[in-house]
Amino acid sequence: MGSFASQFMTPDGEEIAQHTHPSKPNWITVHAITAELSIAETERLWLRFQQLGCNRDGIITEELAGQTSVSSDAFSRNILKKFTLSQTKNITFENFLRGLKWCEIADLNDKLRGIFRLLNNGNPVPKTTFVKILERVYTNPNDKKDVQRVSDIVYKHMDKKNKAMMTEDQFVTGIRNVVPDDTLEDLLLFEVLPTYMKERLHSQLPEFKSEGPTPDPGGRQIPSEAALRQVAEKIHRRDWLRTANKLGLTNEVVSEIKANASDSKQQAYTMLRRWKEQEGAHAYTSVLERALKDSGMTEAAYALML
């Protein structure tokens, strides 16, 4: 994650916790609003934060961080450091929320760059260091013999100049060239609230309860422009190209959209508009909902149905 932490970290002295406390009834609500998460998501992460060992003030101090169950693992320790305030060395619940939200909404390239920056503090990774990392990953003694072979394959593919050194760009480009986007999306998928929980919560909403057969909320309705803008707002920071693929838009159309739209939000909205125009009278809300769910944009799918 490295320098990406600056995108979500709240600096020392500006934390929302200055205006609330775990003992107050607004603790969850205030943090949910600040981090732009749902109450259910915030409650779940508050439970996880408590399990990590925060104190009564809702803070994991440097001392407490050293006592957590994950502190014995170097990789996990490095992740925790990305949530740590530079001056106090504390981890606040707010930054914990913001960091995990980043893990959910970041696009593939940013996630890969974030992973790389955990390997050697953002510096190029020597082959010898990569071997040590693999030795930690391959914990089964029977697999240890594969460490050198795997390392040789990785560096042969990514280190084209044969310098026994892997840079961030080589890491990202190498993986994107070898691993299909769909597979990579699945591998790097992180959900603050798992899909099955979202579906369970969604089914409990009064407007979708019925004594008879379960209704199709979207049905054969055509999504409004306002609905498309709402969806674009929720997906533009993620890999909306996957949604475009699920909606049947060609690579040529996507390339045209990216070339003509100024920013990611406008690109996502334009993509949805193109799909709606392409499908005409058959641009059903239920079709868009399914495409969003299939591309991992579950939250956007539920927002579309409300």
From TrEMBL:
InterPro entries for this protein: DEATH-like_dom_sf (IPR011029), Death_dom (IPR000488), EF-hand-dom_pair (IPR011992), FADD (IPR016729)
Gene Ontology BP, a term: signal transduction
Ranges for domain Death: 239-306
Pfam families the record matches: Death
Cited PANTHER family: FAS-ASSOCIATING DEATH DOMAIN-CONTAINING PROTEIN FADD
Protein name: Death domain-containing protein
Originating organism: Mizuhopecten yessoensis
